[in-house]
Amino acid sequence: MAKKKLPQFGRYKILEELGRGAMGVVYKAEDPALDRIVALKTIILSDDAEGHSEYQKRFLLEAKAAGRLNHPQIITVYDFGQEGDLAYMAMEFLKGSELRERMKEGPISVAEAVHIAELVAEGLGYAHERGVVHRDIKPSNIMLMPHDQVKIMDFGIARMRASDHKTSTGLVLGTPKYMSPEQVLGSPVDHRSDIFSLGVVLYEMLTRTKLFSGEETQQIFHSVVNFQPVAPSKVNSEVPPMLDFVIERALKKDPAVRYQDAFELAADLRSCMIELVDREAAEAKQKGTGKSTKTLKLEAEAKKGQAPAAEAIGMDTRLPVSLRFDCSAAAARLTNPTRRDRAILTRAPRPVGFWRRLRRDSGARWLFAVVIASLLAGAALAFA
Amino acid sequence: MNKANAAATLASVVFLKIQEFPRRPVQEQARLRAQLEAVVAVTAAELLPENRIVLDADDGSVIVILGDPEGSLRLAERAVTATAAGLPLSIGVNHGAVQMAGGGRGEGMIGDGIAVAASVAEFSAPGRVMVSRSFREALAYTRPGAESRLHPAGVFTDGGLRRHELYAPDELAAGRTQRRRIVLGVAAVIGLLGAGVGVRVVVDGREKALEKGLSSLRRSALEGEKLLRELRAKLRH
After folding, report:
1. Cβ of B104 under 8 Å from any chain A Cβ?
2. Is residue A146 domain-shared with residue A81, that is, in the same domain?
3. pTM for this model (two decimals)
4. Backbone angles phi, psi at A255, to 5 degrees
5. Span A135-186, pLDDT tens digits
6. Which residues in chain B touch residue A307, judged by CB atoms under 8 angstroms apart?
7. Domain termination residue (choose one: A283, A301, A333)
8. In terms of Cα–Cα distance, which of B40, B33, B39 is closest to B18?
9. Which of A126, A137, A322, B137 could cysteine-pair with A71, CB 3.0–4.6 Å?
């Protein structure tokens, strides 16, 4: 059988097909001018003539922006161009594996997950500083490289064909499970959307579960917008409490209270890493002396549920009883009140009557006594 | 929604809210939370265990106090001193309905009492305690006179368009009430004695009343002099 002829894009000579996606095909290609192997990603620009020029314009803008990014955690874009209805991007050819594959292979340790997320956050911070938002952070866009390095792929590509995915309700589709609530709702998206998506990826790495799942896209969307995830430490007891705080903040539904900066997230992840290293060292030390490793505080934190903030508390909002204080006696008073408790605790406060005030308020008592004494003296003066 | 498993009860709710908690770096959040726990442990130690339930909120702690509004205010005021140690707390106190709510995630509490305390804490500035009108009434009922320390801080409308009449503790307010009472007492003394004199003048006529008064004064002076003389004689003896 004759071998299928592979296309040529610009000066790039296609060597083999590496993979296919919704947006196009990825090839291994050779740049004969520089004698360099590249990854060539093709993107279908338009299915109709009407949107062609718009796609072309957007592609050029995004590709230029992505091409300006030069960071160890971001795949380098060498070149871009157009061949008929296909746009292409020549990128650094990476010898690594996708995070998606790594997650399928087996559990990722907490330290490794934090390290990956920290590097991705660093890369995102760099891109965000330059006004480039990824919009499609997910495990398949994170490449794990040798020597614990990480590369973020496909910067800006989601945006290039964004309008292709507009639904009748105006929503923009991407990868639903990793989309931020603002993406789902079709609200304006900024760099904080990437922070949310990275939060989802980190959550999944730590808990080995899918955070937002559902059989249908609408179910996933509903989860993204409404579902409050349980603390990762409740799912995986190895997760330190501090990491619960980090993930909780990265996954805030409201971008205004989320991390405002990916560098800030990276800094917090670094702090978690330090705590993890310290904990591992302490555990190793205690193993040596044969002592138990867990502290009471960590156990309490692990059991702790998610509690809402003050501004989100309504009359039917349930706040969990603190596990650090023994509240059983008071709780028993409420669940099984005595007759006296019922009388005291269910009585609404009434206005204070004259005699009650006189009995209980010393100031009022003195005033009353002075008035009575003056009244008597006045009467004596008048009639004695 | 969780199914409530107990009847509604009225209790004082102290909401200790860490200011700007979600916007702080995680390291600081962990530090502030640890500080808050220490503050709650110290302040709640004054209350009997059967009188208090401590709840966790995302950005603070809630202490539900049964049958002791005065203790609640004291706790809130003690907690606010923690601001000096770098814990930016704003405190809201309310007296309202609460009830235990079970559920899959262990014990918890719900109620309008907690929701209003949270709203009051939202209005409160760092290092300040604010209380709701219902709390002031509960305090006045259990300890009449104690409410004089709370002066009006204004009327605020929350996100749910609910209006809250709020008060803030003020040591000077108690002094002002005391001074007002003294002025009232003095005025009552002067008024009533004056009225007595007035009545006497009207009944006896001005000169007779004056003469009566002067003779009474003279008599008193003579008696005083006599008493002084006797005392001096006794001392000499």
Report:
1. no
2. no
3. 0.53
4. -60, -25
5. 889 998 899 988 888 999 887 665 654 444 443 344 454 678 899 999 888 8
6. 55-58
7. A283
8. B33
9. A126
pLDDT digits (tens, 9 = 90+) for B158-208: 777 788 889 999 878 878 888 898 999 999 999 998 998 888 888 778 777
The pLDDT mean for chain A works out to 80
Joined together, the tokens standing for residue A346 give 């269910």
The C-alpha atoms of residue A133 and residue A192 are separated, in whole angstroms, by: 9
Ranges of residues in chain B with a pLDDT under 50 are 1-7, 104-105
| pLDDT on residue A121 | 94
> d(Cα B174, Cα A362) in Å, to the nearest integer?
13
Contacts of B35 in chain A (CB under 8 A): none
Question: What local confidence, expressed as pLDDT, does residue A168 receive?
Answer: 39
Q: Which residues of A171-183 are buried (b: 16+ CB within 10 A; e: fewer)?
A: bbbbbbbbbbbbb
Residue B122, chain A, CB below 8 Å: the answer is yes
- A369–B contact, CB cutoff 8 A: no
Q: How far is A219 from chain B (nearest CA, A)?
A: 20
* Interface test with chain A among B56, B89, B147, B212, by most A beta carbons within 10 Å: B56
What CATH code is carried by the domain that includes residue A268? 1.10.510.10
Quick check: B43 and A299 in contact, CB under 8 A? no
Catalytic annotation, pick one of A31, A136, A194, A244: A136
CB–CB contacts below 8 A, A to B: 230
Model ipTM?
0.75
Total of domains in chain A: 2
Domain that holds residue A34: 8-92
Q: Which of residues 255-274 of A touch B (CB under 8 A)?
A: 257, 260, 264, 267-268, 271-272
- A71-98 mean pLDDT: 85
Tokens representing A167 are 């639904």
Domains of chain B from N-terminus onward: 9-169 (3.30.70.1230), 176-236 (no CATH)
Is residue A48 part of the annotated active site? The answer reads no
Percent of chain A with pLDDT over 70: 83
Report pLDDT for A202: 95
Which two structure tokens, joined as six digits, stand for A66? 């992505």
CA–CA dist A192, A176 (Å, integer)? 16
Minimum-distance CB partner of A305 among B106, B134, B143 = B106
